[in-house]
Amino acid sequence: MKKTWLLAVGLALPMIANASGFAGLDYVSSKVEPDRGGSAKPSVLQFKLGTWINRTETLGGEVRIGLGLDDDSLGNGTKVEIDRQYGAYFRGQFPNSMPIRPYGLIGVTRVETTHDYRAGGSSSKNYSDLSLGLGVDFTVSPKVFLSVEYLRAVDSSGDEVNNLAFGVNGRF
């Protein structure tokens, strides 16, 4: 967890010095597959803040914070809800002036969940791992763009968390 926060602070420091950046709000449909079996599709509302490392806006960094919106059942009566989701990522984009820009992400993600059991009671489970993602930005105006993204947030010890995000973003 400390490594995650150190990486997030390391990415946030250039944001203070660099005036070129972006912020966005995403609706995230997650798929949580614990190692004990089953899968659930809870949703998250995610805020992201990013900055560009170079002037051509091909390399950047971003931090994300998400809060759970909705829960879902694993199929055995256990409901899963994402309480919080944090991440810090490096972002690489193709250098072009087209209105569609594909990008890739690499970073770390932490997902905190609550499992409510049918028989009563609940437990918390946290997932964290190296994350990889691909996405596409669609330019609407010079300051506004839409995004669609797939992120393999967690894939460790049999646990998997995958995210499909749709976002509205602004450049500053």
From TrEMBL:
<protein>
    <recommendedName>
        <fullName>Outer membrane protein beta-barrel domain-containing protein</fullName>
    </recommendedName>
</protein>
<keyword id="KW-0732">Signal</keyword>
<dbReference type="Pfam" id="PF13505">
    <property type="entry name" value="OMP_b-brl"/>
</dbReference>
<dbReference type="InterPro" id="IPR011250">
    <property type="entry name" value="OMP/PagP_B-barrel"/>
</dbReference>
<feature type="domain" description="Outer membrane protein beta-barrel">
    <location>
        <begin position="22"/>
        <end position="172"/>
    </location>
</feature>
<dbReference type="InterPro" id="IPR027385">
    <property type="entry name" value="Beta-barrel_OMP"/>
</dbReference>
<feature type="signal peptide">
    <location>
        <begin position="1"/>
        <end position="19"/>
    </location>
</feature>
